[in-house]
């Protein structure tokens, strides 16, 4: 079973996204901030990371850049999922290495298709 690390500080968003991902047959591990995400990453390497931009402490943009520049995590696909959905935000996400950028509120089909596309072997 594929595992997704979901980094999201909103309990409501976490519940919605977790439900969508589980309905697609995926296992979900969640973190509410970048520090917690780092701890979870050290314990288990997920098949994909979904990260919000606006998080307490470090932003999701910073976590994305960090994941993409470290050898042991650079191959993990990163999907940025945020209310910050302007073209500039999407461009910035791409420049930092994000594999996809989904605006909130997230469309279930788009999320599922994006995750399955990025984790296809």
From TrEMBL:
Keywords assigned by UniProt, alphabetized: Phosphoprotein, Two-component regulatory system
SMART domains named in the record: REC (SM00448)
Modified residues (4-aspartylphosphate): 52
SUPFAM superfamilies (alphabetical): CheY-like
GO biological process, one term: phosphorelay signal transduction system
Top-rank taxon: Bacteria
Cited Pfam families: Response_reg
All residue ranges annotated as the Response regulatory domain in the record: 3-119
Name of the protein: Two-component system response regulator
